[in-house]
Amino acid sequence: MNTTEPFAVVDHAPRSDDQQLLDALADDLRAARYHHDAVTALLGESAHEALGRDQIVPAMLAVDDAISRGESAPLVYLVRLWLLGMPLDPGQVGVALPQLGAAGALRLGLIEPDGGLFRAAVDVRPHASDADAEVWVASDLGAHQRPGVLGRDHVLGIGRASLTLAQAVIRRPVERALDLGTGCGVQLFHLLPHCRQVVATDVSERALAFTRFNLLLNHRALHVDPDHLEDRVQLRLGSLLEPVAGEHFDLVVSNPPFVITPRHAGERPEDQYTYRDGGMAGDSLVESLVRGLPDVLAPGGEAQMLANWEIADAPADGVATGTPGSGPGDKSTRDNSSDAWSRRPRSWVREGTEAWFIQRDRTEPALYAETWLRDASQGRDREAYAASYAEYLADFAARHVSEIGFGMLWLRRPVVPGRMPFGVRFEEITHPIEQPIGPHLGAQIDAADSLADRDVADLLLHVADDVTEERHQRPGAEHPGVILLRQGAGLRRTTLLSSQEAGFVSACDGEFTVGDLARAVASLTEGDPDETVENLLASVGRLVTQGFLPEMRNKG
């Protein structure tokens, strides 16, 4: 059964039932050099960066300047049409799309008449995926390209959240993957190079139509056969995990509609912004996924997603739910028992499931409301804006929410039930991190797995190339009061070291085992040698899994 065929022709979405027209469009875009670098060169770095913030005026000025200089290249008109939402006359469309032509673009649903001109019906822009070449991604036009409030069934394009998730996914070759809430298909494009088959789901029929269009437009770069698309990709309509109930996947990725939105009595699904609002109260959509995802993971299967979670005021007794820290002396994160933010997410993790939550940001309810009201351009109606703003604040107040957290999470179903080498971890890391972060996350998980059945004392370690040491002491002091170990790559943690730990790290050059080094340090420092060795061995596991002290792989 061809699961993609039903989405070839959907109202108010680009159609993908004519492969010849799609190939003609791809040839035109390729000939016009409609790629990221060429667009950046045309607009200039500053204007291109502003465009990424949905500010089109600098790019409009650059395009107008190019046209005034007599440049009538296809690239200029494609940028004007699809990135800026500015109309073209029939002659300009012919220059921009010589093979497809205006008639073909109309048939595919990419443009629409506007008096004697043509205007964009969708956004089409270049995107660098993990494929062999850039792809072009169609989505709905944003409010900066076409005035007015966004449609409730808006299909979001390439945004910061989708890029954040794409950069965070650990890309191991797998047999079967699930893209839950695919939208226009951005995550799917990144999955295809390392997944043999991908199931992509969405609650929006229009979103799946955009995904199918984008797949067939880019079939050469994505290495999919247009005549047998279902061999690599299945598209399924449905909410959350319903379309894949009873199935299992090696990898699940999701940028779900996690935005916390006030609910109303008598609310209808068509009143919700489907790309961001899952229709559930508070953060219960994220909770349902965290609880339910282990059911669709194969043994050893991993899930990665972005999420919001509510941070409620501390309980009356002031006692927070305990969360194990990432190690003694670690000051790079805020993931210990005194932190309220991890209480709710921790309660969602099912027993026997490994989990890693990294909170990247937190915001207060008022700022959260402003962000999402602005996102849908709801400020254009002053009275409706005020009413919606008040609803957000009342909704959060009803649950005693003081802040809303944003971050990424990883889940794994153990291969052997009960064997959880990575365990359950919560960290808050708000400083800038290296991108893509996925390889670094994978390396830390692999390091924890590697240590599971081994004696730490037998390891041969060295200091990672990106790690530096920083010491602080008061003027005239004999010894430093603070010793910090800093990472320049990956999650860029900073961890506080004791003097014994600092001496141990400085001696890690791959020549001697951890046990030998620990005993040598203990013999040179004050205190009980056995206790010092025990403390050092306990610290080593943290420093290894966090990437400060990797193993010497080629020794001997």
Summary keywords:
alpha/beta, 20% strand, 34% helix, Rossmann fold, 17 strands, 19 helices
Describe the structure.
With 556 residues, this protein is of the alpha/beta class. It folds into three domains: 5-138, no CATH class; 160-448, Rossmann fold, CATH 3.40.50; 454-545, no CATH class. Helix content is 34%, strand content 20%. The protein has helices spanning 19-31, 36-43, 45-52, 57-68, 74-83, 90-96, 101-108, 160-168, 186-191, 205-217, 219-222, 284-292, 343-348, 365-375, 382-398, 438-451, 499-506, 514-524, 529-545, and strands spanning 111-114, 117-120, 123-127, 135-139, 174-180, 195-202, 233-237, 249-254, 297-312, 354-363, 401-412, 424-428, 460-462, 467-472, 482-487, 494-497, 509-513. The protein has an eight-stranded mixed sheet with strand order 7-6-5-8-9-11-10-12. Strands 14-15-16 form a three-stranded antiparallel sheet. A hairpin with a 7-residue loop joins strand 3 (123-127) and strand 4. The protein is globular and about 90 Å long.
